[in-house]
């Protein structure tokens, strides 16, 4: 057993960064991290090679995918399959997301 300290907790991006990503746990089969976007910020991520679950722990935004859009806030749980374009926009309150990748983030990327 392991308690993952700080997972899902808001952290402002470093100076000059548009958002903040921290991986807090990594095993071959999954990884857990926190993704934060400040209010009014930009989500500049690209599709991932792994399935992904987001849990909104704080803030409000809209998630946009080819299949549609949805308003999200604390408690929302979002599944994004590997390879699907997605981004958060209209971030109206500092957004903090607990992120779970299966398998671990980047493990299916070419060249790994």
TrEMBL record:
Pfam families reported for this sequence: Cupin_2 (PF07883)
Domain spans labelled Cupin type-2: 35-101
Organism: Streptosporangium longisporum
Designated name of the protein: Cupin type-2 domain-containing protein
């Amino acid at each position: 057993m392991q308690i993952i300290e700080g997972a899902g907790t808001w952290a402002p991006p470093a100076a000059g960064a548009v958002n903040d990503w921290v991986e807090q746990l990594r095993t071959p089969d999954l990884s857990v991290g926190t993704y934060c976007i400040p209010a009014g910020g930009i989500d500049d991520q690209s599709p991932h090679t792994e399935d992904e679950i987001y849990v909104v722990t704080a803030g409000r935004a809209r998630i946009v995918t080819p299949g549609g859009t949805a308003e999200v806030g604390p408690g929302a749980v979002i599944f994004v399959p590997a390879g699907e374009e997605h981004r958060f926009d209209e971030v109206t309150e500092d957004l903090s997301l607990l992120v779970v990748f299966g398998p671990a983030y980047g493990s299916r990327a070419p060249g790994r």
